[in-house]
Amino acid sequence: MALSLEISALKKVYPGAGPEDTVQVFDRIDCLVEKGQFLTIVGPSGCGKTTLLRMIAGLEELTSGEIRLNGERLKGCNEKVGMVFQEYALFPWRKLLPNIEVSLEIKGVPAKQRRAEAMKYVSAFGLEGFENKYPKELSGGMKQRVAIARTLIANPQIVLMDEPFGSLDSQTRNTMQNFLLKIWNERKDTILFVTHNVDEAVYLSDRIAVLSPRPTRILRMVEVELQRPRDRTSREANRIRREILELLEYGEPT
């Protein structure tokens, strides 16, 4: 097994003024993610799904435990980890093309080279003709394509996606799911994807980590062994969906 990400004995506690104010987010999280795998994380609101991604990205400190990427312990922000946010996080004063370029600009890549690389993503992501548009002039789906392109252009070893399609209408969401699968199939990125939508999780994932309420642990790793392209309404897809919904509602049987 070619490991990409290893999370070991991970705990997160937010201390308060007294013991009654302390919030324990994670009880213990242990997880292995293979290189090129699409892992989706689902769980009840407030269980720490976004916190987990932020810890991997180096935006939140660990209370204890460790996170390793290809055997190397992650500490702080790391260019090997890319993150796509739900809110797009595009710079409103920058046009589409400079928004995509920004990751390479931070790395110090020369202007001509980063422009050429960004144009490849404009073409691959179906954004031709919008290079000089500002974010406010783009649809939600186009904004998210720009956000994904801005992350992938830096060639991270692992891609974190925090409910990237949560604010989109259902039709656009389905379109973006298929778009993401196409890009992932071409690039074979290792993806950790957070969603509240169980249907989306079953449609996209190789595996699904179902989290418990706080203090959070992984209730079960659900394997999704469905051939792609997938039928959202197939009997097996519905069976997996029911399994996850029952876990979210009742937890693991004792």
Descriptive overview:
The protein has 254 residues and is α/β, with parallel strands linked by helices. It has seven helices and ten strands. It has helices at residues 49-56, 96-107, 111-124, 140-152, 170-187, 198-204, 235-250, and strands at 3-14, 23-34, 38-42, 64-69, 72-73, 81-84, 158-162, 190-194, 207-211, 216-223. A ten-stranded mixed beta sheet has the order 5-4-1-2-10-9-3-8-7-6, sandwiched between helices. Helix 4 (140-152) runs parallel beside helix 5. The mean pLDDT is 93.
Briefly note the structural class of the backbone: alpha/beta
User: What order do the SSEs take from the amino end to the carboxyl end, as H and E?
Assistant: EEEHEEEHHHEHEHEEH
Oligomer type = single chain
Spans of 5+ residues with little confidence (pLDDT < 50)? Answer: none
The fraction of residues in strands falls at 25-35%
Instruction: Please state the CA-atom Rg, rounded to the nearest Å.
Output: 19 Å
Distance between the termini: 31 Å
Mean pLDDT: 93
Kindly state the percentage of residues in helix: 25-40%
Adjacency order of strands in the biggest sheet: 5-4-1-2-10-9-3-8-7-6
Number of helices: 7
Largest sheet: 10 strands, mixed
DSSP E strands, number? 10
* Principal-axes shape call: globular
